[in-house]
Design a protein that fits this description.
The protein is about 35% helix and about 15% strand. With about 550 residues, the chain is an alpha/beta fold. The protein has three domains: about 160 residues, Thiamin diphosphate (ThDP)-binding fold, Pyr/PP domains (Rossmann fold, 3-Layer(aba) Sandwich), CATH 3.40.50; about 160 residues, TPP-binding domain (Rossmann fold); about 170 residues, Thiamin diphosphate (ThDP)-binding fold, Pyr/PP domains (Rossmann fold, 3-Layer(aba) Sandwich), CATH 3.40.50.970. α1 packs across α2 and α16 crosses α17. The termini are far apart. It has a six-stranded parallel sheet with strand order 2-1-3-4-6-5, with helices on both faces. It has a six-stranded parallel sheet with strand order 9-8-7-10-11-12, sandwiched between helices. Strands 14-13-15-16-18-17 form a six-stranded parallel sheet, sandwiched between helices. The protein has 22 helices and 18 strands.
């Protein structure tokens, strides 16, 4: 077998039945073998779209995804998507073609050192220089991508290696001496944590994306109900517990709920699971959880005490450790703390002025109309934060968004991947007018494959979140953020691609069309919702401020 055939057989061995990618000169041997392999190849319109689509596929399904690109610009166009997956711990295999091995280092046409470029944003990467190494490399790559803290792995495959011949035997196991992830927590640390939980008067749990990555939502629910612990979430943790659960406090941090932020300030014990305490969560580090001892549980030992010094570090898989907790934890009333939390929730609800077509209303309406297993993708900016605040997520893997990297242009191609992974579910991309234009060419992909993705554009004719910061902190100097004189007609643009397009400017128009949009089953739909550019995301904690230094203002 030649190298391209071996690669295809390896992918089949790993259960891969779909690849997102874009062909090119030195990728042709592999493309040719894929042609009649039975593996579906989704031709995107830009390599970045392929990386984001694989990301959305993996986040929504829990399965590992594969994207593919040619050398040089094809490979570099994957970089933003790989970095997005790396920051959010999403398993992905990126296969890039490379110039022939004898040309590497010669500045050949479309040559680039993609393994060097991606080293900081992958768990590991490989440049294969011997056809006999392909099977072992692929086996290791999949193992590394999905084990421990998941993440992307890149395989760079020179064109002459794709053509070279070798015997094929796929390894049945992987043994990497320097890579041994720990899954079960240390028994003594578990005992210590359980004792602190039992003794705590005002505990708070912070659930991060590691809960969802570990498929630990059921274990989390059992734990918080048994231990009777109010729970808040990082952006990536939304959906790990139903947002309307009595113990849920919604999202924490810069645009989190006031009651979640107040709870962190006042709690005496903070149990953080599967999160890395980034600055959008902590605010001013010196004032974060000032009265609390901290238990930090994470599969990645390098994330513990990296940003916040903790009292009890526990390295391991969230699902395994929560199971260990659930064997030992008993109910504690904590009546005063639960009452105080309830009072805060009643006193400081999320709110907005209900005059005109408001983005908060749009999201609330969509949330009320869709089934609980609908998948909501977002771009990045105000649209993302309004969704995090006002959509009532009930299940894990239903909120697909770029957390750590904050990648504009992510949501729509991610929605394509999510729709392929979940053909029977409703998939919606909530977008801004700025971010949707970064990968809008993928409408061609969605139309070709008859994907009924719904794109709700919150169109304020500006880069809304940047404009909000300019208004609040830069004396309303709106440098390069207003686009009203250069904005496409999104409804007509949808039609030009063969999709369906609508435009609404009032609550009445929105209410009259939204059910029809959400029920479409044959084509992608763009709903262009014209909203006020003055609308802002509140509450808001300014960057670097303590979590109780909250900017008010009813938008």
């Amino acid at each position: 077998m030649n190298g391209a055939q071996i690669m295809v057989e390896c992918l089949k061995q790993e259960g891969i039945d779909i690849i997102f990618g874009y062909p090119g000169g030195v990728l042709l041997p592999l493309c040719d073998q894929l042609y009649d392999s039975g593996i579906k190849f989704v031709l995107v319109r830009h390599e970045q779209g392929a990386a984001h689509a694989v990301d959305g596929f993996a986040r929504s399904s829990g399965k590992i995804g594969v994207c593919m690109a040619t050398s040089g610009p094809g490979a570099t166009n994957l970089v933003t998507g790989i970095a997005t997956a790396y920051m959010d711990s999403i398993p992905m295999i990126a296969i890039t073609a490379q110039v022939a091995t004898n040309l590497i280092g010669s500045d050949a046409f479309q040559e680039v050192d993609i393994t060097g470029i991606t080293r900081p944003i992958t768990k590991h990467n490989y440049l294969i220089k011997d056809v006999a190494d392909i099977a072992r490399t692929v086996k290791e790559a999949f193992y590394i991508a999905r084990s421990g803290r998941p993440g992307p792995v890149l395989i760079d495959l020179p064109v002459d290696i794709q053509r070279a011949e070798s015997e094929f035997e796929y390894p049945d196991k992987v043994d990497i001496r320097s890579y041994k992830p720990v899954y079960e927590g240390h028994p003594l640390q578990i005992e210590r944590a359980c004792r602190m939980i039992k003794e705590s008067k005002k505990p708070l749990l912070l659930a991060g994306g590691g809960i969802i990555g570990a498929n630990a939502s059921e274990e989390l629910k059992k734990f918080v109900e048994t231990a009777n612990i109010p729970t808040t979430f990082t952006l990536m943790g939304l959906g790990s517990l139903p947002i309307e659960h009595p113990l849920s406090l919604g999202m924490l941090g810069m645009h989190g709920t006031k009651y979640a932020n107040y709870a962190v300030i006042e709690c005496d014990l903070l149990i953080a699971i599967g999160c890395r305490f980034d600055d959008r969560i902590t605010g001013k580090i010196e004032d974060f959880a000032p009265n609390a001892r901290i238990i930090h549980i994470d599969i990645d030992p390098t994330s513990i005490s990296k940003n916040i010094v903790v009292d009890v570090p526990i390295v391991g898989n969230a699902k395994d450790i929560l199971e260990q907790f659930n064997e030992k934890i008993t109910f504690v009333p904590r009546k005063e703390w639960i009452t105080k939390i309830k009072e805060w929730k009643e006193k400081y609800p999320l709110s907005y002025k209900k005059n005109g077509l408001k983005p908060q209303y749009i999201i609330e309406k969509i949330s009320a109309l869709l089934p609980e297993d609908a998948i909501i993708c977002t771009e990045v900016g105000q649209n993302q934060m309004w969704t995090a605040q006002y959509y009532k997520f009930k299940k894990p893997r239903t909120f697909i968004t770029s957390g750590g990297l904050g990648t504009m242009g992510f949501g729509f191609p991610a929605a394509i991947g999510a729709q392929f992974a979940n053909p029977g579910k409703v998939v919606v991309d909530i977008a801004g007018d700025g971010s949707i234009q970064m990968n809008i060419q993928e409408l061609a992909t969605a139309v070709y494959h008859r994907l009924p993705i719904k794109i709700i554009v919150l169109n304020n004719f500006c880069l809304g979140m940047v404009r909000q910061w300019q208004e609040l902190f830069y004396n309303k100097r709106y440098a390069y953020t207003c686009t009203e004189n250069a904005q496409p007609d999104f409804a007509k643009l949808a039609e030009a691609y063969g999709a369906i397009g609508y435009k609404v400017v009032s609550v009445e128009e929105f209410d009259g069309i939204i059910s029809k949009v959400l029920e479409e089953k044959d084509k992608p739909v763009i709903l262009d919702c014209r909203i006020d550019p003055e609308e802002k995301v509140f509450p808001m904690v300014p960057a670097g401020a303590a979590l109780d230094q909250i900017l008010e203002g009813i938008a």
